[in-house]
Amino acid sequence: MAETKPRGLAALLLALTVVTGVVDAVSFLGLGRVFVANMTGNVVFFGFAAAGETTLSVLASLTAVLAFLAGALAGGRLARRDDDYDALRRATTVQAVLVAVAVVLSATLGAGTRPGSELLIVVLGVAMGVQNAAVRRIGAPDLTTTVLTMTLTGFAADSKAAGGAGAHPLRKVAAVGAMLVGAFAGGLLQLRVAMWTALSLALVLILGVLVVLWAGSGATAGKGGSAA
Asked: Which of 56, 131, 180, 194 is most buried, most CB within 10 Å of its CB?
């Protein structure tokens, strides 16, 4: 199997981590305090809402979880059919289409109405589920693109201060920084400009990753043809 170079792959996964920060900023700030990528947060929010917290929505949290599961199911099917990086290419293509749909929806329908918000939660939840399933197959535990708990745990537990080897400490720090940058940029655009601009930023990043992935695929195919 022809694989993407580790350094190139790490950069692409960091870009997708920025996307997660942007999209979750949009969903939390603009779609009713719900996440479309961080499912741990949604499960907790669901519990809070069920307990009577009126600023949270049981329906929104449940919708996000179900949409994410649907996306993960689709991403898992792509992963079963292809090798690791071909699966990532195809999943990112699907994700780009879904985020493009979200950009159009946010610019036309907006998120002010309940149906509009719920539709955006579904579209974005599916998109992030597809991403997560494809990245999961790559098997980079400190670059999951959607969850930082294990990344932070690994950074601390594997550090020299804890008696560990401290493998890839900069990559772990970069993953946290990427999520923070995405959340800041997405939050800034959501709060001060418009939702569609934040989602457009996410789309640009995804398209950039997609270009690199497909360009690498074409180069690999060309080498394979020359060797034949």
From this structure: 131
Residues 6+ apart with CB under 8 A from 109: 115, 116, 119
Residue 187: CB partners within 8 Å, gap ≥ 6?
A: 25, 29
Predicted TM-score (pTM) of the model is 0.85
Place of tokens 């749909």: 101
Count Cβ atoms within 10 A of the Cβ of residue 115 and give its class: 0-12 exposed, 13-18 middle, 19 or more buried.
Answer: exposed
For 3, half-sphere exposure in the C-beta direction (CA atoms, 13 angstrom radius) is 8
If phi > 0 it is left, if psi is from -120 to 50 it is alpha, else beta; for residue 57 that is beta
Residues in the chain: 228
Tens-digit pLDDT profile for residues 67-109: 999 999 998 887 665 566 788 889 999 999 999 999 999 999 8
H helices present in the chain, as ranges: 6-30, 39-51, 58-81, 84-108, 114-138, 149-157, 169-192, 195-227
| Tokens 């970069």, located at residue | 174
Please say whether the beta carbons of 97 and 71 come within 8 A: no
Residue written as token pair 């069920």: 50
Please list, in sequence order, all residues whose beta carbon lies within 8 angstroms of the beta carbon of residue 181, skipping any fewer than 6 positions away.
18, 21
